[in-house]
Amino acid sequence: MTRVSGIPTSRAANFIKFQRDPLGFLVDALPMGDVVSLRTSSFRPTFVVNSPDFIQEILVHQEQHFRKGRSSGVLRRTIGDGLLTSEHSVHRQQKKYLTPVFYKERIQTYAQIVQEETERLADSLEDGVPVPMHEVMMQLTLGIIARSLFKTELDADKAELAAAVDVTIRQTAGTIFSPIIIPFAIPTPGNVKHKRAIRTLEAMIYEAISKGKRDPDAYADSMLGLLLDTKDESGNALSDQEIRDQMMTMLLAGHETTANALVWAWYCLERAPGARQRLHEELDVIRLNEESSGGERLSAYDRYREMSFTKQIVQETLRLYPPAWAILRESEQELVMLGDHFPKNSSFLISPYAIHRNDSVFGDAGVFRPERFDGGVSQWARFAYFPFGGGSRGCIGSQFALLEAGIIMGSLAEKFHFTSTSGQGEAEPEPLVSLRVKNGRWMVPERRQNQKSSEKMKSQSLE
To answer: Which InterPro entries does this chain map to (predicted)?
Structure first.
């Protein structure tokens, strides 16, 4: 018996609805069946995949029969042939030489950088003065990526580089789901703006490559140093172009996604006072334990290991608002999955955003409830919860992303809680390349009372 069902609406109606509200379209398709045919062309049929076991077939068991296809072609305009866009043997080779970037011992070193950059941000925030949270988180995570992976201090360039990333993300998102892809060589206003943004990012990257070649010892423990030391299968050093592509990939995929997730986390906590209180209590216990042990602060990595509820907040945010809200695959041959036949060039649309909202799996799936992760992720089917994708193309930096988000949340929430400024209404998701809060979010950092008391005591002791 087939597990493929047809969508009841017409092809034209589906196209219009998806263009207007892709997230709503995918959530509405969730109860329609395990695999939902959108009744498109018989030569290039399109399916929405809702069942975890079918997703596992596509991303793991039969992944060798699929390509990323159209999405990679569009992303390649910006990041070139990096890990995110390469296919098959090239992807396997790139993943092999990039994996050491995220070894545990390196992540422990990155943790300290995350802590330092976040504390610098905390020192710059003024009690009661609103900030554009999306821009603040973007600049913070951009600085972290530049320092941890490229050993580059951005300082005054953060705002300009973050703006360039924003342009590339918006232009790319506008193209991926467009029915017509205008060639990049045509000087439309969008293409001109996009290329200018790429040049801005490349200037930083090529300067870092040049410095790394002049002083390799100074970059030895960074991703850049690793790339400069890497040899291909013929024993040749990687070209500057390939190094540029990998750095551009990490720059775009490695910071914008985390920044978006953090904005959603602050927003969700504002609307879940119980969860926010539990977060503050956890952080206060860690701080008090440090003080009772002689006042010596734990290392950033050891502190992160103590933040069990903070981690659950990050996991729950990624459930409700996964940055990678859609995964696209195209079949390279006719194939059979779980008894159903699919023709060559079939397109499959997988949405973690929709699948994470399955009430039959999560119960109150639309509610922000971090404690649901008390039992870990193994309580659900493998692809019922998968914010970082899966298979060989799963996010290589997932552990770093979780650590980064956790340390940032812990460091800022220890000192502040954040409240949205009035007049903004409910936050709406904006599905670009990753899932943003539409129009950003202005929030007010309000210093916690225990922090105010602590600062007052320090001031009196200095007097």
So the answer is: Cyt_P450, Cyt_P450_CS, Cyt_P450_E_grp-I, Cyt_P450_sf, Cytochrome_P450_Monoox
